[in-house]
Design a protein that fits this description.
The chain is of the alpha/beta class and 913 residues long. Helices cover 36% and strands 20% of the residues. It contains 29 helices and 33 strands. Helix 18 packs antiparallel against helix 19, helix 19 runs parallel beside helix 21 and helix 24 packs parallel to helix 29. It is globular. This is FAD-dependent oxidoreductase.
Length: 913
């Protein structure tokens, strides 16, 4: 693609998103004979597995193309060496690149889909932006594998967002990689909440995630890499032709249009379960079934966005109930969903029908042949989840429970005291129904001298049936603060708290006074969520005296100074839940006709830099927002004195200097990192021959790097550099916007002297209005010179006292130079592969070079058997070719980049306002 040009492409199948599902969708469509274009916003393929840090399968079901991907990954991992937690992420990155190249998939990396072409209600293609130009891709079928349903959203499709209460999404992770007892591993710890559709909140989430990494480093942890993307677990869910309902999931209901099977548990990372649905509270907190694995059919209709043609969804944005989405999102399952979507797209083209008109039986036959489905998946008549494994119920037909004889019902009641009691609870409550004989039997159980756990199971069943017979039993549990739990899992609550959850199901006011007392006396944020939720369902039926008492307690509750401070996320990381408890308390007071004691609580929420807080306030004030259509629109990102495009060394210094002189400055970076020559391209060897003035902006940056311990003997350590850069840029007062790709700048027709800057975002477009614009991009954002030296860096661990070494590696065109040298730490080495010519700069070629280079260096004895390749840079860095030399080093010294940033700022500061 020529710089800043529009390129038009026609293809059969367009895959938007090259992550967990997208890569397999592309490979499958290509194997089915379709021409395939794959567009990915990141600089490498693989998504959460290779770029998000989760290089281990967790639950999910095997089958299909993933087995080929796993075999190829293992082959490359053996070359890279070392022991790995799960699979080797860089090996999978190389495997996916190689497989796409072998199957003729045309891949566009660093390319953001930011618009959709429509013909009526049919998606006919997309508009996309890259650092080198614009793409207009026309496709017969588009597969949205963005994870967040971004293409469907831009096409005007209907999505549902977050949890019903307040629109909040699952916790996200930001994951560092390091050695754990000699094994290549990662820390999958949660970093908080984020709104994935808000670019400012995404930026904040990057900074917040790295604050946790910085804290770990201060405590002695060491990492060799940081994730290139946030570990998002949830985005919008499309409204499809078929929706996987909660009952389908629990009962494993056979679907006549099944395309694959899912296996997981309801993996909600949050501990504020009282903010979740009533079912989640029951399943996770009362029954203690958080880790219970469940099978589920994924029907073809769940991939078809209602009201749109020419488009399928592959990945976790498929049509599911929100509770179900917690489980139907694991990597293995999303591999198969992506493959099924890719096959469906190709077959629909071959059959000359739209994806919606596709013959489901023909699709299923092909998926059987590919191993995505098994014959038993099509033949089964009942689910696996609720099938009893032992006892008199082991052979019953679950579909006949409604008409079951009394003997079967008695067996179900008796099963409450077994390890499969949860199955009996569901079947009695949801299949048998509230029969008088069953209610009598359950009520008798409450009085029997049997374990309290069995009595609790009977009480749960009665409440699900809508019977109030268990109320006295539950009140006694609450009165005596019964601490027994049905599970040792930390998300399971003691019986006295479970009592409020069950009474909430009945909307029973019997424990109102106890709930108010507990709210005043209990310090636990987690318990507060259940108590507030219980109170919320009672409000409509409260007497005036009860309303007054409730309002008085809530008023005092919201005045607590440490409200929510005890809350811990996954990994026992503290993250205050104050925002949520305050909003929930305030909305209860509002519904009672009272004002919260916190002045302007709603206005403060709207202005909160954590954009999810304002979103939660909106939803609480207007619950109808949960089902609204979020049609993608051009986002007004604000007005600034200056915008600096690109988070390079020079760009960071320029932005910081301008902000330091009182200008309102925004720094725009297409990735999630700053100082991109070091953190993304991992050009780590720099000579600092002269000290900049400590009073200068560049001198302050150098001091920040030195203070962080990021510079030693001419070598910079990228993780420490990124952590120092975050602190430096935020302390300067510069606003940063990550994952925003510059498109164009035009004079503002309405504001003379101002410029409109158009940005491509993952969910559409955004505009900045600025007085001054400074263009100094990341290494990938400037047009490539006609003759460049590309250098790709990689980190090897287990390398002690590495002596400099250089060799040549034969390539398709010319040679690749391989250099090996000591890294920042004594046991690390840096491998640099350099080659000339833009034609060899593709990700596929680069990954092939890395694999061959490691093979060659092992053969030469330069990489010992116990050493391993741990990390490959996001992107190559490049230098102009000067004669026969590799590059003009003096043009790229750290001092020159720092000075460039100072000079750019000075030019802006010298202009008239």
């Amino acid at each position: 693609m020529k710089p800043n040009q529009l390129e038009c492409i026609e293809t059969d199948v367009l895959i938007a998103g090259g992550g967990t599902s997208g890569c397999l969708a592309a490979l499958a469509a290509a194997e089915e004979g379709a021409r395939v274009v794959l567009v990915e916003s990141d600089s490498a393929l693989g998504g959460v597995a290779t770029r998000g840090g989760i290089h281990r399968y967790y639950y999910g079901s095997p089958g299909g193309l993933q087995e080929l991907v796993d075999r190829r990954t293992e082959e490359i991992a053996r070359v890279f060496g070392g022991k790995t937690k799960g699979f080797h992420p860089e090996a999978k990155r190389a495997a996916l690149s190689a497989l796409c190249a072998e199957r003729g998939v045309q891949v566009f990396l660093n390319t953001v889909v930011n618009g959709v072409a429509m013909s009526g209600t049919t998606v006919s293609g997309v508009r996309a932006a890259s650092p080198w130009g614009q793409l207009r891709i026309t496709a017969k079928v588009t597969v949205d594998c963005t994870g967040n349903g971004s293409v469907v959203r831009m096409a005007g499709g209907t999505l549902r967002y977050g949890r019903e209460l307040d629109g909040i999404y699952h916790n996200y992770s930001y994951i560092p990689r390091g050695l754990q007892n000699g094994v290549l591993g990662y820390d999958n710890l949660d970093a908080g909440w984020v709104d994935p559709y808000d670019p400012w909140d995404v930026t904040r989430a990057f900074f917040r995630g790295r604050e946790w990494v910085a804290e770990a480093c201060q405590q002695g942890s060491r990492y060799f890499g940081l994730s290139a993307m946030l570990g998002l677990r949830e985005g919008g869910r499309i409204e499809g032709d078929t929706t996987i309902r909660l009952a389908d999931y629990i009962e494993d209901t056979p679907s006549p249009e099944v395309i694959t099977r899912s296996y997981s548990h309801l993996d909600n990372h949050g501990f504020d379960t009282g903010n979740e649905s009533g079912f989640s509270q029951l399943w996770i907190s009362v029954l203690g079934l958080f880790t219970k694995g469940l099978w589920c059919d994924i029907p073809y209709g769940s991939l078809l966005p209602r009201g749109l043609e020419g488009i399928l969804v592959g990945g976790r944005a498929l049509s599911v109930d929100r509770d179900v989405s917690m489980g139907v999102r694991m990597q293995k399952d999303m591999h198969k969903v992506g493959e099924a979507a890719g096959v469906a797209a190709a077959i629909s083209i071959q059959s000359r029908v739209s994806p919606r008109e596709l013959d489901r039986r023909a699709l299923q036959r092909r998926l059987l042949e590919r191993g995505v489905l098994e014959q038993t998946d099509l033949e089964r008549k009942q689910g696996r989840n609720l099938r009893f494994t032992q006892g008199p119920l082991a052979h019953i037909d679950l579909e006949e429970i409604k008409a079951a004889p009394e003997s079967i019902l008695r067996d179900l009641v008796q099963a409450l005291g077994t390890g499969e009691g949860w199955k009996a609870v569901w079947l009695l409550a949801h299949k048998a129904g509230p029969r008088a004989s069953v209610i009598r039997a359950l009520t008798r159980k409450l009085q029997e001298d049997i374990p309290i756990e069995e009595r609790m199971m009977a009480a749960i069943t009665l409440c699900l049936m809508g019977s109030h017979e268990a109320v006295p039993f539950l009140l006694e549990l609450i009165r005596c603060k019964e601490k027994t739990k049905l599970s040792d899992h930390p998300k399971c609550v003691p019986f006295w708290v479970a009592g409020f959850v069950l009474l909430r199901l009945l909307k029973s006011r019997a424990a109102l006074q106890q709930a108010l007392k507990a709210l005043e006396e209990t310090e636990s944020s987690v318990i507060h969520t259940f108590l507030l939720d219980y109170l919320s369902v009672l409000l409509p039926d409260m007497s005036q005296d009860e309303q007054n008492r409730t309002a008085s307690v809530l008023f005092r509750y919201l005045q607590r100074t440490e409200l929510g401070a005890d809350y811990l996320m996954h990994g026992e990381r503290p993250e205050s839940l104050h925002w949520s408890l305050e909003l929930r308390g305030a909305i209860l007071l509002k519904r009672l006709g009272r004002e919260a004691p916190v002045p302007d609580v709603w206005r403060e929420a709207e202005a909160d830099p954590r954009r999810y807080v304002g979103r939660a306030a909106e939803y609480l004030l207007n619950p109808a927002l949960a089902s609204r259509v979020h049609a993608s629109q051009e986002i007004n990102l604000g007005e600034y004195d200056a915008a600096v495009i690109g988070g390079s060394v020079a760009g960071v210094v320029c932005a910081a200097k301008l902000a330091g002189r009182g200008l309102r400055v925004v720094l725009v970076e297409s990735s999630g990192s700053l100082l991109t020559e070091i953190t993304r391209a991992r050009r780590t060897q720099w000579s600092i021959t002269a000290q900049a003035s400590p009073d200068s902006t560049s001198g302050q940056l150098l001091q920040a790097l030195l203070k962080a311990g990021a510079y030693r003997n001419g070598e910079l350590e990228p993780v420490l550099v990124q952590l120092a850069a975050d602190r430096y840029i935020q302390s300067s007062g510069t606003l940063v916007l990550f994952e925003a790709l510059y498109q164009k700048a035009v004079p503002d027709p309405q504001e003379p002297g101002h410029t409109l800057i158009y940005l491509a975002l993952k969910n559409g477009t955004g505009t900045l209005r600025v007085r001054h614009a400074v263009f100094h991009g990341s290494p990938i954002e400037a047009p490539k010179p006609s003759a460049s030296c590309f250098t790709l860096s990689a980190v090897l661990v287990g390398m002690v006292d590495q002596q400099p070494f250089t060799c040549e590696l034969p390539a398709v065109q010319g040679n690749v130079t391989v250099q090996l040298r000591q890294g920042f730490y004594p046991e690390e080495a840096i491998m640099e592969l350099s080659w000339y010519g833009e034609g060899l700069s593709s990700e596929g070629a680069a990954m092939a070079f890395v694999v061959e280079a490691v093979k060659e260096l092992r053969k030469l004895g330069r990489i010992p058997e116990e050493a391993s390749l741990a990390y490959i840079a996001d992107i190559p860095w490049q230098e102009p070719k000067v004669g026969n030399n590799r590059g003009a080093e003096h043009l790229f010294s750290l001092q020159s980049l720092l000075q460039t940033g100072e000079d750019m700022a000075d030019r802006i500061l010298g202009l008239p306002n």
